[in-house]
Design brief:
The structure holds three protein chains of three kinds. By secondary structure, chain A is α/β, with parallel strands linked by helices. Chain A is built from 23 helices and 21 strands. In chain A, helix 4 packs across helix 5 and helix 7 runs parallel beside helix 8. Chain A starts with 10 loop residues before the first strand and ends in a 7-residue tail after the last helix. Chain B is an all-alpha fold. Chain B contains 13 helices and no strands. Chain B is flat and about 85 Å long. The two termini of chain B are 13 Å apart. In chain C, helix 2 packs parallel to helix 5, helix 2 runs parallel beside helix 9 and helix 4 packs across helix 5. The N terminus of chain C is likely disordered. Chains in contact: A-B, A-C, B-C. Chains B and C meet through helix 1, helix 6, helix 7, helix 11 and helix 12 of B and helix 3, helix 4, helix 7, helix 8 and helix 9 of C. Strand 4 of chain A pairs parallel with strand 1 of chain C.
Amino acid sequence: MTVVDHSSPLLRVRGLSVDYASSAGPVRAVSGVSFDLYPGECVALVGESGSGKTTVGRALLGLLGSTATVRADHLEIAGGDALGFDERAWRSVRGGTMGLVLQDALVSLDPLRSIGQEVAEAMRASGKKLSRAERKTAVVRRLEAVGLPDAATHARQHAHQLSGGQRQRALIATAVAGDPRILIADEPTTALDVTVQRQVIELLREERAQGLGLVLISHDLAVVAEIADKVLVMRGGEVLEQGSPAEVLARPRHEYTRALISAVPGEDAGAGRATETSSIATSEAPSAALAADAALAVDVGTDATTGPTLTARGLSVAYRVPGASEPKIGLDDVSLTVHRGRALGIVGESGSGKSTLLRVLLALQQPTEGTVHLDGEPWSGIAEAKRRERRPRLQLVAQDPLSAFNPRFDVRQVLGEALRRMPSADRERRTAEVLDAVSLPASVLGRHPLQLSGGQRQRIAIARALAAEPEILFCDEAVSALDVIVQAQILELLARLKRERDLGIVFVSHDLGVIAEVCDDVIVLKGGSVVESGPIDAVYGAPQHPYTQALLAARPVLGAA
Amino acid sequence: MTRNSQGIVLLRGVIRRLAGAVVVLWAAVTVTFIGIRAMPGSVEDVVLGIHANEPGLREQVRSSLGLDQPVLVQYFQYLGQIMTGDFGRSFVLRADVSDVVFSQLGPTLQLAGAALLSALLAVWIIAVTTSGGSPRTERVIGVAELLAICLPTFWVGSLLIIWFSFGLKWFPASGADGPAALVLPTITLLLPLAGVLSQFMREEIGRQLRLPYIVSARSRGISEFRLRNVHLVPHAAVATLTVAGTLFGSLIGGAVIVETVFGRPGIGRVALSAVESQDTPVIIAVVVLITTAYVVISTVVDLIALWIDPRLREETV
Amino acid sequence: MTAQPSLIPGGERAPKGPVFRPERPGLGGLPASVWASLAVAVVLVLAITLPGALGAGNPNATDPLLSLMPPSAQHWFGTDELGRDLYSRVVYGARYSVVIGVLAVLFAVVVGGILGLLAALGGRVLDEVLSRLFDLLSAFPSILMALLFATFFGRGTINLALAVGIAIIPAFGRIIRRQALAIRDSDFVTAAVTFGETRFRIVLRHVMPNVLTSVLLLAAIEVGAAILTVSGISFVGLGPERPAPEWGSLLAEGRTVASYGWWPTVFPGLAIVATILACTTLGRYLQRRLERRLTA
């Protein structure tokens, strides 16, 4: 742990409030937030979307725009009274005293300008007088400092030419280029794969170790727990409670904090479970090791109650890339079986082929090689007309329900899409039944999906899938866009449906915690191949493949702090 | 990707665009050729005029124009001539078409260039100073843009003549002598251009202003002036360049009308009088010239977009 | 202008930030500009169907004694060089200008629709070819197109409508292509596939209604633009043969007498401007409403 210098605070915030002007009068976004930030310290603002955490960060930089009114009893930035700042004073604070790191570097760096130009701009703006050559060396040195190995080349490249981790590092380089004393990081790891997420957290930790004050804004309790010295839990613009991560996580005083903590997915399965169940895991190790052989059939969970429903053998997908001699591999020799009443998780980072696999299983795309059978009958490689009758047996729940609904339809019409084959007399009854199954009131029927919350929309999507009376439900990152508490509710709903309806579930996600929450078996995909598969406890408890081990180790966990 | 391979991509882009340009030109020439064959009334009638009934003259004209040969032979002869820049002789003006057309190119280019440059300047100033401003400013500019687009060029031109030429006597009502004669035509032509351009620029800048990279840039403490000119204008320029083709069309179309309103010499006048007298070689020359100009400009515009936006240089796209 | 929020130290005073004011709704929830545009539309329909009801007489009746009379109680818009009543000519002119503009847009909607769907669903080569064609057509000045049509096929209402319509084809072709592609790849079409819907039903139930709305809205705006082009072409002398009182032709006649009087120039021009503003205002208003409904 770094030594925190408590002599003089970098930030002194007392009673910070923000109002936005709207057509219906001022709307309060942040109310009475107070905290101090000392050099080498990390203060974290945690909350779900709409909690006001991002607004606090922008207010500290004076970047809220003209529709916002900021008030405070006291707002001190590096010794200066920010309440008296004019635009000129704010500009001198930004970059030179305070830097900002946003979520997705692909859109947070100007796509038309090179990395080097962006870093140089930050240096120039913070008032460093450097010659052309000096600045060039300084840029390269700065990029090296954030861990970009080939900095001279990267300086000439643009954000889209770098990998996700590289460009997030580059973004951090621009934020610290003016040697600020405070860094505000707004969801700095959210869009990243877990292994990269880990590296970025380490980088932030290093920057803090050099005396930087860090304000970390995140929805992810686990990330916060890893690095923060002080946590502020926010909801509806107010701070519900604050304290050290250990205090807040172990002894949450507020009801909401408790809900937030218990909603973190995979906490009872992941690393926590890894230690508890290691003995069981070792006893199961032979089966896991056997299954880890990707070329072998990965018939996991053969002890399931019902026989196999969907079986895939040796699936490969190759794309022809115009101009390239070698075809691009989408999937490479993937075999799996989906049973009714069991949930199969497919986990992998971006580009691992998990979405392609899902599309092939749903016969939305034909495999280059291999076959898919549904209850022993061919499912892939046949004419669509022969599939159409059986289509309702496999249903999809997409990540963004809004895009999965025809924008002209209200909820009743959305549900009606799945009920078209049904005699109209039964439709009302069935509609009521599926709404009940996803715990939504009948009053939503007349509303447009836009008028519903994100969680309600996803429930509608699930209800629509259920209306088709499927045997297997495919969930494509189905909870990734949701806040953690809503996420937990949807996962619970899926688990209940699996139990009550003997539903098979294929759950595709990048999030190991979410998979652990809902799945019985898991397949780990990397570069289109299965690197490991088996029952969830076995794979999470005693991962055999180095990649799985790296994934699990990189995952931020609540208890790690 | 290395610099070198980006250069290759750029070169490949140029070659592909040039190949496309040749195809477009060929298509334009062929269509006009077919059009002339399909048109009612024969070519020789136009040439002969009042001498249409003199015996023997008709055959003489036919053979001198090559009309007695098979259609395919005529077509390839015609293609060959056009490729060497030979558009034949005007039936009516009794002069080489190339000379007629090129001598009138100057005034049109002057007008179009002046209007385009002043429109770009005006739009740049408007976009940089007002985008992201108060709702009231936005609305006032929006109405101004709407008017600039909806007011007919020929009407505005006429009104300007009535007020400034006949009323105030500030500028001449017609002709192309000196810069004073260029003022009213330029204003007339730039209005619709500026209206369209400004709409695109401001819409794009408004969209960009909401993107995270703007927050990043602001968090570095740069000035609003720098933010707008270094970060926003290039983005808006790329977006605006994509409609350059449409702008080209309205620029040329507008120039023809403005030339008529102000009685200016230029391509438009030549083309219109050629239609009156059915002088097909001149019409073809104008069509080929304008198509060439479009092809050249759109190629240049594409290359400028490639130069500004590195994402377009990716080979996989 | 600056992005700086106002800072008020302490206290709970009322915020001084600028007040966000949405578009002021007028009668029946519609802005005044929309009501005005609707009124213009009604007048235009009357002018086309029942010009007499608007008090218009014979547009071609000449009276050499009344040449170039300024506006008066008998002649609201004055008279032209041949003593024809300008008001009657402007009213009858709608039959040319507006009708040709609407015809041009109808033609462009049909052809552009077919080409756009072909480009979206007909494979990569066809897509590339059609997209280039759209580029070329949108760049080719419609005045030149009219010029070619007049040369090859002669003048006339239909030829003028075709010439102007060709230039608008890309606008519809592109929007239909883009929308059809977006909808084809959308999650809700994927969902429909998983319910076992047929291709035909998906196009009918999901693709068409979503494409049509935006096409109709664009058509409203394009009618204004087409009328502008039509009168411009008539102005340079490529429109319907004289003495047809097309608005552009009226302006061309007005130009020759501009040094004698302002009214032959001002009134036909106002008719054009009112018509175009009405079309554009209505189209944009409906577009904004649709966008708001689909995103708010």
